[in-house]
Amino acid sequence: MENLILDGRKVAQSIKNQLVERVQVLKEKGVTPCLATILVGDDPSSATYVKMKGNECEKIGIKSLRIHLPKETETIELLETIQKLNEDASVHGILLQHPVPSHIDERKAFETISIEKDVDGVTSFGYGQTALGFGKYPSCTPAAIMSILHFYQIPIEGKHAVVIGRSPILGKPVSALLLNENATVTTCHSRTTNLSEVVRLGDIVVAAVGKPKFIQGDWIKQGAVVLDAGYNKGNIGDVDYDACSEKASAITPVPGGVGPVTISMLLKHTVDAAEETISKH
Amino acid sequence: MENLILDGRKVAQSIKNQLVERVQVLKEKGVTPCLATILVGDDPSSATYVKMKGNECEKIGIKSLRIHLPKETETIELLETIQKLNEDASVHGILLQHPVPSHIDERKAFETISIEKDVDGVTSFGYGQTALGFGKYPSCTPAAIMSILHFYQIPIEGKHAVVIGRSPILGKPVSALLLNENATVTTCHSRTTNLSEVVRLGDIVVAAVGKPKFIQGDWIKQGAVVLDAGYNKGNIGDVDYDACSEKASAITPVPGGVGPVTISMLLKHTVDAAEETISKH
């Protein structure tokens, strides 16, 4: 079956093109959007992610303020760093790279980010607003998944969406966003019994498990839309792409699917947040 | 088939018995738990609900501070009233009776309630904390449903729970609570296609639609547990009780099911909040 490959690079480019113009307008008004990223410790993949995010900011004219704290940093010091960024009017968005070293209370650190600067959508306050339908900055991967569906005009209303995974920044918020766009939403996880049968209910399937090639071809209903939010070692998604694409009417590849759009949502939220500071004056 | 009638009055009594002792201890420490209720306008059923809540408080020794504002009250005046209660250290919980007159921004009013006093679980912040698994005061009806399941030791983990309804204080939070206790959760609503088929997936079915006798007997899988959070005119639930109880292994009646437990959760949260003020000192 011929299926549609959901090209995340194309979606991301379209978003970034609009942002370039908006950043220009902001700068003419004397405001340079700024994303502060905080990296704690020396985990090489975290360092790579943060660097990539910073570089993507700069490419479209967003200032990237990169804070690197040593791995011995205590929770209280991290909270102070975040608090200073909350108070710094030149900073519009704050991203704390997950994971932080295990001795740090990561949840407490996330919760310290002020709602106005939570462009990565990690606070419980932001999650609550998103789920109740008036959040400004949903988590970036869930927002990316919705952007892909919108870009390709894939119908959501009345469809049965099955989300595999329930993390605070992925499974839960993407379930909430799909529900708010009138999908019937089933959220599955490691304790789900008969997972394959449940996934087979899905007109839209979102894989957010963090296990390479976990979603099998025969779990997918003929004609379903498959979105793979997984990004495992060696550029491998959560979905067995070859097997699933035989069943799916549309599918995101890995790499080049959800990933690139996720970063563009982070940029968009940062520009949104910068614009908010102007509209308040 | 002989089935188990989930007796909400029994669950509520068990909760209230514990609260009487806890209130006693608080009073010995010089703290009288206090719930402030705000009623805006003269809707007779709202007036009845608020009165009932206040009376239930007093029965177990919680102070009931009853504020009645005229129906012409403007949003800003309501916000000021809430703000004063937020600042009043003798008040431990704040309940704004829904619905307020339509000219008032109810969401804004709810959001003004401080998280420490949001014992009715109406703020987006409280919702987010609940959904992410560390909320102190989930909305009372969802909390009541979980209490009934716990009281009757009904297994939740790995079960497929189907919630019909997605309101901010009922369908969404009960979905979140069931998910956090390891159910696979499907949330349905007015745009769900093939609703009867989806409901038939449920090992646990929660009806939160607000339409009398909406859930039909042939929608219920043999042996499912049915919880009716509906409370429609004339004491009628959302579930066609007679038809559904022929299929269900356990079911809540209306009245005498979820309703009484809901009020006891409000009392419990108020006592919890009063205890929190002591543990902070």
Mass-distribution shape of chain A: globular
Mean pLDDT of chain A: 97
- The largest sheet of chain A has its strands arranged as 1-9-8-7-5-6
* Beta strand % of chain A: 5-15%
CATH superfamily grouping of the largest domain in chain A:
NAD(P)-binding Rossmann-like Domain
Q: How many strands appear in the DSSP assignment of chain A?
A: 9
Largest interface: A-B, 34 and 34 residues
Key phrases:
homodimer; alpha/beta; Rossmann fold; three-stranded parallel beta sheet; 10 helices; 14% strand; globular
Overview of the molecule:
2 copies of one chain form a homodimer. With 281 residues, the first copy, chain A, is α/β, with parallel strands linked by helices. Chain A folds into 2 domains: 86 residues, 3-Layer(aba) Sandwich (Rossmann fold), CATH 3.40.50; 119 residues, NAD(P)-binding Rossmann-like Domain (Rossmann fold, 3-Layer(aba) Sandwich). Chain A contains 10 helices and 9 strands. In chain A, strands 1-9-8-7-5-6 form a 6-stranded parallel β-sheet. In chain A, β5, α7 and β6 form a beta-alpha-beta unit. In chain A, α1 packs parallel to α10, α3 packs parallel to α4 and α6 crosses α7. Chain A is globular and about 50 Å long. The termini of chain A are far apart. The model of chain A has no long low-confidence stretch (mean pLDDT 97). The interface between A and B is medium-sized, with 34 and 34 residues. β6 of chain A pairs antiparallel with β6 of chain B. Chains A, B: Its EC number is 1.5.1.5, 3.5.4.9. Chains A, B: Homodimer. Chains A, B: Catalyzes the oxidation of 5,10-methylenetetrahydrofolate to 5,10-methenyltetrahydrofolate and then the hydrolysis of 5,10-methenyltetrahydrofolate to 10-formyltetrahydrofolate.
